[in-house]
Amino acid sequence: MKIKRIDDIVLGWSRIEQKTAKSDRESCKEKTLRTSREGRQLLKSLAFQEYSMILQDDDIGKGPMGKPYLLHYPHIHFNISHSGDYVACAVGKEPLGLDIQIHLDKDCRRTARRIMNPAEWSAYEASGFQNEYFYQCWTRKESYLKYTGEGITRDLRLLEEPETAHVQYIPLNLWPGYSACLCLPKER
């Protein structure tokens, strides 16, 4: 596990062991379960390290829109994200949202049309349709939706100022070929 501090937020991540042999291939469901377990383990490690909390799986509840929270520690907030070879977890004493995303080597324009507002699309176009810009935009939006707890439940093109004026986005450069973003309250 690697750790990075951002003010009073602690961010931990680890590389997920990949199955390579044909006999070890996993289904998507199996990989999701494994990365979820690894995310919970990161949470438990960070909570113990930072707050001397010993968490069990049944200490984690889900809010009305599915955002996980700590049942017995409402003053501690966390968020877990996984993509590609990595799983990451952020823990702190204020609401937060974290998203990581591997950069796939494909044309992202169709998806970009569905998530970008006109100003974002213009900037994406001006970048020469660079995938890095697309993934930075994606992780920013998803980190906000994880911050609010609503998840991807609406048209992402409509997600912009002034609705998001109360938060700050911290882009994270953790690994080559990935984008990551942490969303926090602006007034801290």
Overall description:
A 4-stranded antiparallel beta sheet has the order 1-2-6-5, with helices on one face. It has 188 residues and is an alpha+beta fold. 31% of the residues lie in helices and 28% in strands. It has helices at residues 28-51, 109-115, 118-126, 131-148, and strands at residues 2-6, 9-15, 60-62, 68-70, 77-83, 86-92, 97-102, 167-172, 178-185. It contains 4 helices and 9 strands; from the N terminus they run ββαβββββαααββ.
Notable traits:
single chain; 188 residues; alpha+beta; 4-stranded antiparallel sheet; 4 helices
Write a short abstract of this structure:
It contains four helices and nine strands, in the order ββαβββββαααββ. With 188 residues, the protein is of the alpha+beta class.
Q: Any low-confidence stretches, pLDDT <50, length ≥5?
A: none
Radius of gyration: 17 Å
Q: How much is the average pLDDT? A: 91
Reported for the largest beta sheet, the result is: 4 strands, antiparallel
The SSE order reads: EEHEEEEEHHHEE
Helix content estimate: 25-40%
Indicate the structural class: alpha+beta
Largest sheet, spatial ordering of strands: 1-2-6-5
Q: How many β strands by DSSP?
A: 9
Number of helices: 4
